[in-house]
Amino acid sequence: MRREFGALAFGATYGSTATVIQFVSALGLAIFGVLRDSFGGCGVVLGAASLCTGMGALTLLVGRRASRA
Fold this sequence. Notes:
Number of domains: 1
Radius of gyration: 15 Å
Helix content: over 70%
Number of strands: 0
Strand content: under 5%
Largest sheet: none
């Protein structure tokens, strides 16, 4: 985190990331189960997982560019 976002942003970035990781670890499977049951298949669940992964990758790319500027 320090390398990607810089030393000054380490605390806020790490705290935010740890919060999201704990939330998803605790409730992610239940949320995906509800989505699967609501929409009758795994397509929406896989789309949501792909969206989350893409958002994480985009965050790393934006953070890397901002820290180099």
